[in-house]
Amino acid sequence: MKVSTQPFSSDFHDEFPLPLESRRKAEPFKMTVNCLVSDYDGTISPLDVPRSKSRVPEKTRIMLQKIGRLIPIVIVTTKDLAFVTARTPFVYSWSAVSGLERKIGDTIQKRRGYGHKLRNVSLAIEYAKSHITDTGVEIEEKRNMSHRSIAFCVDWRQAKDAVTAMKEADAVADHCKSLGLKLIRHECQPFFDVYPVSIDKGVALKEMLKELKLKNGVLYLGDSEADNPAFEASDVSVGVIHTKTRLQKLVCDYVVKFEDVSSFLSRLLANGLMFDSGFPMIRVNLEEVRRSA
Question: At residue 25, does pLDDT exceed 90?
Answer without folding.
Answer: no
